Amino acid sequence: MTSMATVSEWIEGARPRTLPNAIAPVVAGVGAAIALDAFSWWRSALALLVSLSLIIGVNFANDYSDGVRGTDEHRVGPLRLVGSGTAAPKVVLTAALAFLGLAGVLGLVLVAVSGYWWLLAMGGLCILGAWFYTGGSKPYGYYGFGELAVFVFFGLAGVLGTVYVQAGKVSWAGLACAVAVGSFSMAVLTANNLRDIPTDVESGKRTLATRLGDRGTRRMYVTLVSVPYLLTVVLGIWHPLVLITLITAPLLLKSLRAVGSGQQGRALIPALRDTGLAMLGWAVLSAVALAFQVV
Q1: Best exposed site among 19, 167, 230, 282 by fewest CB in 10 Å?
Q2: 14 found inside a domain
Q3: Do the beta carbons of residue 65 and residue 185 sit within 8 Å?
Q4: Residue 247 maps to which CATH number?
Q5: pTM
Q6: What is the pLDDT of residues 234-254, one digit of tens each?
Q7: 134 to each of 25, 33, 89, how far by Cα in Å?
Q8: Measured between alpha carbons, how far is 129 from 45 in angstroms, rounded to an integer?
Q9: What is the pLDDT at residue 69?
């Protein structure tokens, strides 16, 4: 019998450790907008609220969809509200739709005040992408496209959208930040799916990790977390202050050791946290560097 979830359980079910994936793209986008002399604090705040609402919505949507399919019955990691029986599926579904709806409303306000109506299409794709990641009869997350989706939505769309609603254009620095943050987001999901390979194989969830296998997934993680720092060096040619983001690399040392040494299960959970923190630190420092660049 399903019990009533407590506030702390709802917070855990929202997966707060994933919030850097929503905050980092907006922060990096703000830095790129400042570099274009187009910063607007209230447009930035709206973009952040849209991004946060979207990721909380997708987390609850995943909880609901995976829970009713039975995918989460033996999952290692944060509390799953439906899978654990902590909350009724319909209640979690309502929470998911509420946050996705909030993201839509806030996004509509942002588009209306910026006047770039074509961005409604991008916002609609983001919401559809959030739902169909694990929702619907053929969720793309079950076919190995989850990593590509987070790169597009929390990398390219998140960063470049934040820049565009303020500046009406994008820049090469903004594009570099978008690819870097997208690679970090992919790395977070890769670490998550690496941890879940055994249970995903058992439940028939064909993530990219299950397709690449354990060794291939570990190699992909290392490659993905290397991309932002390679871009840092390239971007530093034109914006030397951006090189300060290199100081976030040590945050990944424990994660790289865990992934590289073949650790599994719960031993990989800190890798998700540390990758997210490295991403957030990189975004904050890159934003500061771009804001203080010499024109």
Answers
A1: 230
A2: yes
A3: no
A4: 1.10.600
A5: 0.92
A6: 999 999 999 999 999 999 999
A7: 23, 33, 14
A8: 22
A9: 79
